[in-house]
Amino acid sequence: MIDMQEFARRLSTLGSKSFTSDDVVDLAIAADLRISSELEIDAALAQRLLDRVSPPVTVTGAQIAATEWPPPISSRPAAPPVAFSSPGAVDAPKDMPARSRTSGPARHGRRPDSRRNGR
User: Which residues pair with 3 in a beta bridge?
Assistant: First the structure.
């Protein structure tokens, strides 16, 4: 958790606009929140405030309220977006090739003839 001044300072590092404690109060009013200078801002409250920032910022409430600032930059590439349409089902991106839906081993050649006895 961070205080309001630290939230404003961290928010200022994210964009070209410099934020003050008064700006944080304005964000809180826009989000229908009661806030004071002594209030500790947790991840949920930070997210509600960040949702009111325009233009939107690239961090989450959990990242901005974390003890480590700035948030660590991942060296791994971002995963492609996936849309969940129902529990257990995943819709892949549209450019993915379709796979056949056969089950069991592939059948090649003649089928075994059950009428023949091994002579």
Answer: 40
